[in-house]
Design a protein that fits this description.
Layout (H helix, E strand, L loop, with lengths): L2 H26 L3 H22 L1
Length: about 55
């Protein structure tokens, strides 16, 4: 494994972790009703992405 490939994997891992922590923090500050709405929107979005892949 080359140095560039290792750096790319490390950057991708750091990016993914930062995004996850940021999203968790955003959701932690939201009221439960908005969290529920976000979950519904994500479920709809996931359904739409799966339909587009068919």
């Amino acid at each position: 494994m080359g140095k560039d490939e290792t750096n790319d994997k490390a950057r991708a891992l750091i990016d993914a972790n930062l995004k996850r922590v940021f999203e968790e923090q955003l959701e932690a500050d939201l009221p439960d009703s908005l969290k529920d709405l976000l979950e519904q929107l994500r479920a709809q979005s996931d359904g739409n992405s799966q339909d587009n892949q068919k």
